[in-house]
Specification:
2 domains; alpha/beta; about 35% helix; 15 strands; Rossmann fold
Amino acid sequence: MDSMIRVGIIGCGGIAFAKHMPFLSQTDGVEIAGFYNPTEEKARRAKKEFGSKDAKIYKSWQELLEDPSIDVVHVLTPNKFHAEMSIAALEAGKHVMCEKPMATNVADAKRMIEAAKISGKKLTIAFQNRFRPENMMLKNIVERGDLGQIYFAKARALRRRGVPTWGNFLNKDMQGGGALIDIGSHALDLTLWLMNNYQVKTVTGTTYGVLAKQEDAANPWGPWDPGKFEVEESAFGFVTMADGATVVVESSWALNILDEGEAQTVLCGSKAGADNMHGLRINGEDMGSLYLKTVETDLHGAAYYESKPADPGELEIRSWIEAIKDDKEPLVQPEQAFAVTQIIDAIYTSAQTGKAISF
């Protein structure tokens, strides 16, 4: 690979325009050289805004993968196509960043990992919340041993009302699920990463489509159509890890709750506890007293010289490109993302069968 990394974009939707293409185009040594989207108009807009001088628009995603000048592919499509396109890209000799979730089921996620191993190319999944400053700080605190053994945790992604009514979010065939696979996956990835715990033993789960039946519901993006709401609005899981640790998963697009928040985690260890629900907070015991410590992660600078924290998406893209240039493991490894898919798949299966799922 020469010094310039050429990226191809498969899927020019909202996440491509909001995160991937802006930050890729601002990264040194990178150019976006190819675009494919089922609606060509979006691909043309993407090329105009972010493409290199010689950027191409392809008639199919397979044609993009056949182009030997493309080094890296970002798969930014509905969830249904993540595995198929990522595997094909790896087999074509491309490094792949796939938007979350990794896949809609365990079997496809396994195939993705195998394809990456066989190809020798890098595969990562886009979980940008790891790169938030409070979460990176918390990771360092955990690794230093401040919390001790973490034996209980919560992965929270709860909206009072926030049902995405555009695109394919409510389409079960395209997405594979609702709130759990959408926003729940971020909270779950963050929690497992902070715990550094990926061996799952048993999973019990429940899903709900209660508020989805409401007509003319209050929602920031307008009321949803109950007839087209094919996925769960809420899902909850009780996960036991192989080492005995417990992880509770809470995810919802619409729940009658006031304490809402996304990509949140609560960690309870033998020495101390921590959460990122209201900034980064550490709680524990010292000299016979309980303490609560709030950790500042924003550096405010001075008047006229305010520091601007990097966007987590920007840090994610920069880290990914560095992993390719330096030939090192990406921060989000496919085996880690696999555990997220494993738990999500098991919560759905448990909810459907009414039984605990064992591994």
